[in-house]
Design brief:
478 residues; mainly beta; Immunoglobulin-like; 3 domains; five-stranded antiparallel sheet; 3 helices; elongated
Length: 478
C-alpha cells in the first residue's frame, strides 16, 4: 500500500494549503492557524499544542494539522512526516523532539519563511520548492542553525547538544551557536559533505558524508491510549512508556540502550536550547541564509565552479567570467531582469560590471541592499563575413541543430528506499539548468526521494525564451 504524503500539487499559497489539507487531516484540539500536516507513520508519535501544559502530550493515530509553536516527539520506533506543502517536508525519526517555529507566507510575492527546532533526534529535510531567493527555511538545534535553499539534508542533534549535518543534495549554510546563544562562525556544506557543530560553539572541518541515520524496523502505530500511564492489554511491546520502568532516568545521562528517550526520559534526553532567535536577522533579501544581527555587509559566495558572472542582470547578458568557488564577493545592489529573474551586482576587482543570479549563490549579512542601476543592453555585433579566397568555393553552410528536449525518469515509480535515474538530452539550446543548477545538455542524476517528488529542467532557448520540463518520481510505501 502506498502512503500518500502529498498535500498540494504545486502551489505555496497559504489559502490553497488551508483548502487542501483538511482533505487528509483534521485540526488538533485548539488549533486555529494550521500551517502544516503531521502524518504519524509508525510507532509512538505525540503532539503537544503550543498553548498546552508541559506534560500535555497526545498520541496521534491519524494525520492532523499543526500550527507554529506546536511540539512533536517520537519514541524508539516512531516516525512522522511534517509537510508544509509539496516539495517542502521533513521526516522525523525515532527518539526525536521537534518544535514548529516561524511560518510566514506572502502569497503576493510567492515567498515563505519557515523555521523548525530539533531539540534532539534525527530529521530528514527535503526542500525542493524554494523558488524565490527571498524564501527562507531554517533548522535550529542547540548548537547550530542550518539555513538552506533547494536541498536535501539530514540534521542529527544528540542529547549532548552536538549537531551533525549531512547534505545529500544542494548547499546548506551552517552557523555555530555560541554558549551565550549568539551565532558564531558559519561554513557552506556542499552536496556529499557533512559538518559537526559542537556545544562549545565550534564547527568541525567540512568532510565527506558521515553516519547518516538508519530508518527503524517497521512497526504499527501506537494506539491512542499509549502515553496514559496505564499498560493496556496489547501495549506490552508497542508502548514502553506505559509498560516499562526506567530506573536510571534522572542521572543526567541519556541511555538509549536502556530504552530512554525524549518520551520515556525527557529529563536526561532533551537538552535545553540556548539559541537566541534575536541573534538572527531574517534578511528579507538574504536568499534563505540566517545572518548575525550585527549589521554585517551583504556578501555572496558559491562552492561551485560553473556560476556565470555576467555583464548585467538577465540571461541575455554576456558571460564575462565564472565566480571563483569559496571567494566572498561584496554585494553592491540588486536588480530584476526583464524576464523576472533576480540578480546581485557584486564587487569584483578591476571589473566595472559584475552580476550573479541570486539562485546561484548563497548570501550572508544584511542583504537589504539598494536597487542597482542595470547597465544598458548592448547587442553583440554580428561576426564579420569572410569572403572566400578567389578561385575557391565557399565552404558549405552548417545547418542549425534543431531544438530537442528529452527529460525523463527511469524508473518513474520506485519502492520506498530505492533510487531512480533522472536523465536529459537537450540539443539546439542556449542554456540548461537542472533543479536550478547549470548543467550540460546530456547528463543524468541519481535521485533517492522518500516521497513523491517532482524534478525540474529549465531550458533557455537561442531566442532567450524559457521552457520548463518536469518529471515526477512516484514512491510506493509499504
Amino acid at each position: 500500500m502506498r502512503r500518500d504524503h502529498r498535500v498540494l500539487r504545486s502551489s505555496i499559497f497559504l489559502i490553497l494549503l488551508l483548502i487542501a489539507l483538511p482533505i487528509a487531516a483534521h485540526p488538533a484540539s485548539g488549533q486555529e492557524n494550521p500551517v502544516a500536516s503531521l502524518d504519524p507513520v509508525q510507532g509512538l508519535v505525540q503532539l503537544r499544542p503550543a498553548a498546552a501544559p508541559e506534560n500535555d502530550w497526545r498520541t496521534l493515530t491519524a494525520v492532523e494539522l499543526v500550527e507554529a509553536g506546536d511540539w512533536v516527539r517520537t519514541d524508539s520506533l516512531g516516525v512522522a512526516v511534517l509537510t508544509f506543502f509539496e516539495g517542502v517536508q521533513s521526516e522525523i525519526l525515532p527518539n526525536s523532539q521537534v518544535t514548529i517555529g516561524q511560518f510566514e507566507i506572502d502569497s503576493t510575492a510567492n515567498t515563505f519563511q519557515i523555521t523548525l527546532e530539533v531539540s534532539v533526534g534525527d530529521m530528514h529535510n527535503q526542500i525542493n520548492q524554494v523558488l524565490d531567493p527571498n524564501s527562507r527555511y531554517e533548522v535550529h538545534t542547540p548548537s547550530a542553525v542550518i539555513a538552506v535553499r533547494g536541498t536535501d539534508y539530514w540534521v542529527s542533534s544528540s542529547w549532548l547538544s552536538e549537531a551533525l549535518i549531512n547534505v545529500l543534495e544542494g548547499v546548506v549554510q551552517t552557523f555555530a551557536v555560541l554558549p551565550d546563544g549568539r551565532l558564531g562562525n558559519s561554513v557552506f556544506v556542499n552536496q556529499g559533505q557533512s559538518v559537526m557543530a559542537l556545544p562549545s560553539g565550534d564547527l568541525s572541518a567540512v568532510g565527506p558524508l558521515h553516519d547518516i541515520p538508519e530508518y527503524p524496523p517497521r512497526a504499527p502505530l501506537a494506539p491512542a491510549t499509549c502515553g496514559n500511564n496505564v499498560c493496556e492489554p496489547g501495549e506490552e511491546t508497542i508502548c514502553p512508556v506505559d509498560c516499562q520502568t526506567f530506573p536510571s532516568c534522572g542521572n543526567n545521562i541519556c541511555e538509549l540502550n536502556l530504552g530512554e528517550g525524549p518520551v520515556t526520559c525527557a529529563a536526561d534526553c532533551v537538552p535545553e536550547s540556548r539559541f537566541n532567535p534575536q541573534a538572527v536577522n531574517p534578511s528579507p533579501d538574504g536568499g534563505g541564509a540566517a545572518t548575525g544581527g550585527t549589521g554585517e555587509p551583504c556578501t555572496v559566495q558559491t562552492t561551485r565552479r560553473d556560476v556565470p558572472m555576467r555583464v548585467g542582470p538577465g540571461f541575455n547578458r554576456g558571460v564575462r567570467d565564472y565566480l571563483t568557488p569559496n571567494v566572498v564577493y561584496p554585494v553592491l545592489g540588486d536588480a530584476t531582469a526583464n524576464d523576472g529573474s533576480l540578480w546581485w551586482q557584486i564587487e569584483v576587482p578591476n571589473v566595472p560590471q559584475a552580476w550573479a543570479l541570486q539562485d546561484d549563490v548563497m548570501p550572508s549579512g544584511d542583504c537589504d541592499v539598494p536597487d542597482a542601476e542595470a547597465p544598458p543592453f548592448v547587442p553583440a555585433a554580428p561576426p564579420p563575413t569572410e569572403e572566400p579566397p578567389p578561385d575557391q568555393p565557399a565552404p558549405p553552410e552548417q545547418p542549425d541543430v534543431p531544438m530537442s528536449i528529452s527529460f525523463y525518469a527511469s524508473p518513474s515509480s520506485i519502492s520506498y528506499g530505492q533510487c531512480a535515474i533522472i536523465r536529459w538530452d537537450v540539443e539546439g539550446i542556449k542554456e540548461v539548468y537542472f533543479e536550478g543548477v547549470g548543467v550540460t545538455g546530456h547528463e543524468s542524476r541519481e535521485v533517492c526521494p522518500y516521497d513523491d517528488t517532482t524534478y525540474t529542467l529549465r531550458v533557455i532557448t537561442r531566442d532567450n525564451r524559457t521552457i520548463i520540463r518536469t518529471v515526477t518520481v512516484i514512491v510506493d510505501y509499504y
